[in-house]
Amino acid sequence: MNIASALVLRLKLMANLDISEKRLPQDGRFNIRAKGQSVDIRMSTMPVQHGESVVMRLLNQSAGVRKLEESGLPAELLGKLRTQLRRPHGMILVTGPTGSGKTTTLYGALTELNEPGKKIITAEDPVEYRLPRVNQVQVNPKIDLDFSTVLRTFLRQDPDIILVGEMRDQETVEIGLRAALTGHLVLSTLHTNDAVDSALRMMDMGAPGYLVASAVRAVVAQRLVRKICPDCKTEDHVDESRAQWLATRFPNQTQATFQKGRGCQNCNLTGYRGRIGVFELLELEQEMMDALRANDAVQFAEKARASKNYKPLLASAMELALQGVVSLDEVMTLGEGDTSGSTKAIYL
Asked: What b-and-e string marks burial along 160-178, b requiring 16 or more CB atoms within 10 Å of the CB?
């Protein structure tokens, strides 16, 4: 505690923040070199009872942008997503909570689309990776340079592909949807629990159902789960409570064998090392679009979850558990936030 205030002061200096202001939250960023690698650090400060709380997000710029196949997307979903990315117009959404890898997925998609002859413009807050041939705009609300203002300007810049960092308000959503209808491919993110909720969330933000149905082509939902440490992997014996959960959600897998990590020096005794993405992809079909045009949220959700081409996040996570990549506990943790119906059984 004796060095806490001095450490915060030093970090604020590095991020060009106001060191005399301790009563208000502040955001900044700075870059350092560690072991020959460039690390970009986003920093957030917040006043608390006994000083200031500081959170830093580290981004290894030297590692470059991950390709889509490196993110953990299953081959079947990857093929479908690439088909959607090759469309000349329409909107593709990537959704998930903060820190679930949405930006990484979008940059992977942009890398594939970044070809000579295609004009790509992005509005981001902040610009995390610098991409060649891409016009990247840093959003700055302090001077009223917000997403809606930037997006309105984009339409006069003759772009082929537009990336909007986040759909935050009704105006941004409506401009983005109309851009998708007027010959542009629009990529963006939303903060929702799953792919089905995304279209409904846009309607909750004030976008007309017919506009969402006409513009949105696909929604990718994702989470990051911890991988079992390969050096201490061992068989996991399922206890009674987990067996009941399996019988409720995955009745076909009650006799399956699962793996876990014992904990070793290589994983700091946690049993986990590294993370992998879990994905679901919802491609809008005619019946779903008709439900959106009728502003029927219940019918849309039913049609989406009944679609043969839709596999829930939880089912994708269970496939990784059956392969021994993740533990059953990680799947159950993911299931606690599942909104597709806690009593609905999923058959694999």
From this structure: bbbbbbbbbeebbbbbbbb
Segments in the chain forming alpha helices (H): 4-14, 75-85, 102-113, 147-154, 170-181, 195-204, 209-215, 240-249, 286-293, 297-306, 313-322, 328-336
Rounded Cα distance, 59 and 155, in Å: 31
- pLDDT over 60 at 115, yes or no: yes
268-297 per-position pLDDT tens digit: 999 999 999 999 999 999 999 999 999 998
What are the helix and strand counts (H, E) for the chain?
12, 12
d(CA 61, CA 127): 12
If one counts every other C-beta atom within 10 angstroms of the C-beta of residue 137, the result is: 20
Q: Cα separation of 339 and 318, whole Å?
A: 16
CB 176 within 8 A of CB 151: yes
Measured distance CA(169)–CA(206) in Å, rounded = 9
Report the distance separating Cα 203 and Cα 292, nearest Å. Answer: 9
Spatial CB neighbours of 80, under 8 Å, sequence gap ≥ 6? 218, 281, 283, 309
